[in-house]
Amino acid sequence: MIRELMTAKERFYTEKLECKYRGFMENVDNESSNDFLEYFKSFKNDLNMGRIRAAEKIGEEWKVNFWVKQFILLGLKYGNVKEFGLNAEGRFFDKETLGQKKLRRSDKVRVTSNNVTIRDGCYVAQGVICMSPSFINIGAYIDEDTLIDSNSLVGSCSQIGKKVHISAGAQIGGVLEPIGEFPVIIEDNVFVGGNCGIYDGAIVKKGAIIGAGTIITGGVSVYDAVKGKIYSRTQSKPLVIPEGAMVVPGARIIKGELFNGLKLSVQCPIIIKYVEDNYKSIKLEDVLRDLIPQELK
């Protein structure tokens, strides 16, 4: 799974790093610029190696490591803009605390061209494929054998599991602020269709299918046509898409008649089926056809 369970040794080491960085933040205004840059370099290296992350699963619950997000924000605050690149074609300007992640062939990450941007401070596991163009922001965590297809975004602090398919044009939103808010979390074996958008700290549980063009945000409820439930974000919990759910774009009617009797609707995601591990054999058209009343066929 998405490295959900940590050994006691790993937990001890992570807690040690947390104490180190939180202690530094408490006195950051008294530190020199050089000391901060060295600490931030060490912090990014721990992110790159997957030793620390913006959110982690403990048991069955996800926990936000707000101090990780807080340290990233310090890098944006104290870093100066500098020039990167060796020539006009590859030149860009970014905070000196950021820059791009340096990959080696031994990392076993496939990057199809230099139009893929992976910011320094991301964990990208072996077997990951990044198609061109795509962008992965600082704090992101992408587990093994996941595909990031063309024109896709993996935003700040997003957590992506193993064997996830992020299709072309999909946007996985970043949630850097507020620091206590959940980032977007995509668990193992999830399929995200083309031109989808998943934002506002939504959690997509393992094995779910997000149909092409579906927009999922924390502010819009998800309607479960199978179980007759409505899933929404609360003040204490993020929006959660259940395990194995197949979600497609839908709409709901706005109450009342507006504009001289004209009825309007707003978009909302709808769960139309629950699938097993062999979901690849399911055709969306067949599922939708089963939902049409007999008299309308």
Short key terms for the protein model shown above:
297 residues, alpha/beta, UDP N-Acetylglucosamine Acyltransferase, domain 1, 10-stranded mixed beta sheet, 4 helices, globular
Describe the structure.
- The chain has a domain at 98-296: Hexapeptide repeat proteins (UDP N-Acetylglucosamine Acyltransferase, domain 1, 3 Solenoid), CATH 2.160.10.10.
- The protein is 19% helix and 27% strand.
- It contains four helices and 26 strands.
- The chain has helices at residues 8-26, 33-48, 66-78, 284-291; strands at 55-58, 61-64, 81-84, 92-95, 110-111, 116-118, 123-124, 129-130, 134-136, 141-142, 147-148, 152-154, 159-160, 165-166, 171-172, 185-186, 191-192, 197-198, 203-204, 209-210, 215-216, 222-224, 229-231, 240-241, 245-253, 265-274.
- The strands form five sheets. It has a ten-stranded mixed beta sheet with strand order 5-8-11-14-17-20-25-26-22-23. It has a six-stranded parallel beta sheet with strand order 6-9-12-15-18-21, with no helix packed on it. Strands 7-10-13-16-19-24 form a six-stranded parallel beta sheet, with no helix packed on it.
- Helix 2 (33-48) crosses helix 3 (66-78).
Q: Please tell me how large the radius of gyration is.
A: 21 Å
| CATH hierarchy class name of the domain at 98-296 | Mainly Beta
Structural class: alpha/beta
Number of helices: 4
Strand content: 25-35%
The number of distinct β-strands equals 26
Percentage of helical residues? 10-25%
Average pLDDT, all residues: 88
Distance between the termini: 42 Å
Q: How would you characterize the largest beta sheet? A: 10 strands, mixed
Q: What's the CATH architecture name of the domain at 98-296?
A: 3 Solenoid
Low-confidence stretches are none
CATH superfamily of the domain at 98-296: Hexapeptide repeat proteins
